[in-house]
Amino acid sequence: MTEILWADPADLQAAWRDGARALREGRAGEALAMFRRITDEGQPTAAVWIGVAMAHRALDDRSAERAALERALALDPRNIHALMISGDSHAATGDAKAATAFYDAVVKLAAMGPVDPALQPEVARAARMRERYAQDYEAHLRGVLDAHGLDGPEGRRMRRAVDLLLGKTSLYLQQPKYFYFPELPNIEWAERGDFPWLDRVEAAADDIRRELLQVLEEDAAFQPYVQAAEGRPNFDNLGLMGNPEWSAFYIWKDGAIVPENAARCPSVVRAMEGVPLCTIPGRTPSVLFSLLRPGAHIPPHHGFTNARYICHLPLIVPGNCAMRVGSETRPWVEGKACVFDDSIEHEAWNRHPDQLRVVLIFDIWRPELSAAERELIGATLQAVDAFGGAPHTGD
Question: What is the pTM of this model?
């Protein structure tokens, strides 16, 4: 029977202390011998394996270093010290992908809970290294893809894909609050060039603005955009119900023209001729001036259905006004129409201290829908409204 020489815990602790001292003093070979006595005894901790790894590093044996680190992480997968050294080991041999994985693990673990104050500088260094490799990775990808036309007109969707791959943007999906139509493309901001009929609408912007300014002279013309629904429970999760900070003046409302308002805005009525308005009796279209008062913010929310697009014709736009749809934020530009899917999370704000922001809003059918599909959607929602005998009011 083999005699056990190092079974005494006191002897093992002495070997650990002697090995750690030798490592600090640059005697890597002696340190390794001391640590090996503990591992051979079959009682190593993650710290001991880390000591073995550091001794092998000092002896320039990367393969043995990583084997020891793997043993340490097998005992303690969340050991920040072992993860950090593993990242450094891979960085030293030029394996950026592996190094990034370990540095990323360090940063994520540190975000989950308290970290030993002595390790905080290493956590900060891991974050810096991760960022450096992220920049190198992005430069590498874009350098390759630029040669394939990434920055050209055909690269628009690929640019978004690359941003998602790099974690520079988040993925936002259609989540209409009421009616979802399957298999429509998930597009945040539609391409303006796909809607040539908007040229006529933009051409009328000056005339529409003159009519708007006349309406604005009457304080009572605008009413809060979000109104309580009669005969229904009302929950105001966004703090907008009855709030005049976001107000509206309707030319069409719930699918019907508002005669007295249309008479005041004949340029709007003419501009809507030939527009593929989303027409569902009792529901849509809605055509309105949407007003945001200074300092107003419409919190993130989702629209009624993905079967339509929302169009904006900006008419009065001071500075510090913008809208985010999904991952992309855009400012409004007076007289330049934009088209977006409001079933994707969106928000808007007017951060100007003392000026209004007003846009003309109207909703159109998604162009991917056939005439038969549009008819079926309309019939479905009318059937919903007819159930129970009470008319629909609002979206």
Answer: 0.81
